[in-house]
Amino acid sequence: MTAPLGHDRKLVTHPAPSGLSSAGLLVRRPRAAVVGAGIAGLTAATALAERGIDVTLYEREHHLGGRVGGWAERLPDGTPVTMSRGFHAFFRQYYNLRALLTRTDPGLDRLTPVEDYPLIDEEGHTDTFAGLPKTPLLNAFAFAVRSPTMGLRDLLALKPKAALPLATASVPGIYRQLDDVDAESFLEAINFPVAARHLAFEVFSRSFFADPAELSAAELATMFHLYFLGSNEGLLFDVPADPFPEALWTPLAHYLADRRVTIHTGVQVEAIESAGTGFQVQTADSTAGFEAVVLACEVSGLKAIVGSSPDLATSAWREGIGRLRAAPGFLVRRLWLNRPVLPERPAFLGTGSLPPLDNISLLDRYESEAKRWTARTGGSVVELHAYAAPTEDIQVLARQMDKRLHEIYPETADARVVGEIDLWRQDCPLFEVGGFARRPSVATPVPGLVLAGDGIRIDLPVALMERAAATGWAAANTLLSHWGVAGHPTHSVPNHGRLRVLNRLARRERRTS
């Protein structure tokens, strides 16, 4: 069993907005549409339904979970398998996501820990996170001292004033400081060693689906704060022990159905019209009225709906949505091999400066379906990821990724591929340089219309799946407050550096700069 809300004594709880205990106490029970059934939409639907709102959930795909969803496929021999976008790390400081999952799994027993995830570069240097102290700053010091790419001399050579934002990050302040600088230039400016840059920071920055030269330095600093210097949960994480639908979303669908949520999968919302004090949600086959709408779509879906809704909100707001950009495309390549990978190989390996490969996952080390397949066949299930891919030619990318796999794990070179599935997507938000000021927030110019998702602004130190969940709770709270109904608490790591002396120094530097 893993702790639902972590162990950090400095975990911050943001109180729930006050109000009536249930919408059933109102004269009329409000109706809300939630568009998009990824983490953000499912969180918003859960939060609203628990307070008695009549919720209708629309999802254009035929499965729930969005980018953490799964669906049925078959191998060439007819074996049924579950495909997904692959490995996702459920970090212990993902408090808002974990709060959602506890609705159907109070002890988070469907998650299993990954004890370590080493990083390797082209020179064979390896970093590891196992055994690091959890105390912020001490963890960074220990990581640097034992890293083959960054010793004590390199640590002392860092430019302390320039590097101070990493240890004192707060949101939104860090974006005022660093959003106009790219991550690569920032690391150069603080004199971060090149080898360590490739091995450590590049691996994490590319998990945001962008190269360091395209990623905002503020986003990098927020990430570093969330995962390292702002939390003592450590950099270890859990993963679902079963395929995503079985472990996460099918139980949640039952939970929502018990609370009268209507779920439409395989239904695409095409436009939304303002109608008096409410909204008309249009699909290809129907139009339905609601008092509120949560748009919890990925970038292209949000742009398409807003672009087809010429009277929604204000023209300036619609234009801002239209300027949102998706990150470069990425490829997930899953291989079913007829031979096992050596037992000492880790469940997850991050790769730096080994393009186009960004990581290798061995699903049979942690996922029940893959374990059953390997027990039956004696093979292995290997997954490769390439983020911010240099080409959209899937065949070329696949060959390059396989070549890297064979170099890193030579025992796979002679294995026969029993089955393979390649998945190309380009729908993640781009956290580009200077983009924070243009990032849309949860609230919109129109009461009753709110946004949620990992590309939506919320002034908390959160990222990726945790930002999706946090904005989902925030979107629901915004609507509940509008109706005078009590909301839900949210949680985060401290929204400031952990050492007061460094925070004071940072404030002094900002005043004099």
Task: Note down, in words, how this protein is organized.
By secondary structure, the protein is α+β, with helices and mostly antiparallel strands. 33% of the residues lie in helices and 20% in strands. The protein is built from 16 helices and 22 strands. The protein has helices at residues 39-49, 95-101, 138-146, 152-157, 160-167, 173-178, 183-189, 194-206, 217-229, 244-257, 299-307, 315-322, 368-377, 394-408, 464-483, 500-512, and strands spanning 12-14, 31-35, 54-59, 70-74, 80-84, 90-91, 111-114, 119-121, 126-127, 237-240, 262-265, 269-275, 278-283, 287-290, 292-295, 330-337, 348-352, 359-362, 380-386, 417-425, 449-451, 490-492. The chain has a 7-stranded mixed β-sheet, sandwiched between helices. The chain is globular, with a radius of gyration of 23 Å. The N and C termini lie far apart (48 Å). The relative contact order is 0.20. The mean pLDDT is 94.
Poorly predicted parts: none
Ends apart, CA distance between termini: 48 Å
Count of helical regions: 16
Q: Quick check: average pLDDT? A: 94
Subunit arrangement of the protein: single chain
Strand content: 15-25%
Strands of the widest sheet, in order across it, are 9-8-17-18-19-16-20
**Overall strand count:** 22
User: Biggest β-sheet, characterized?
Assistant: 7 strands, mixed
Give the structural class: alpha+beta
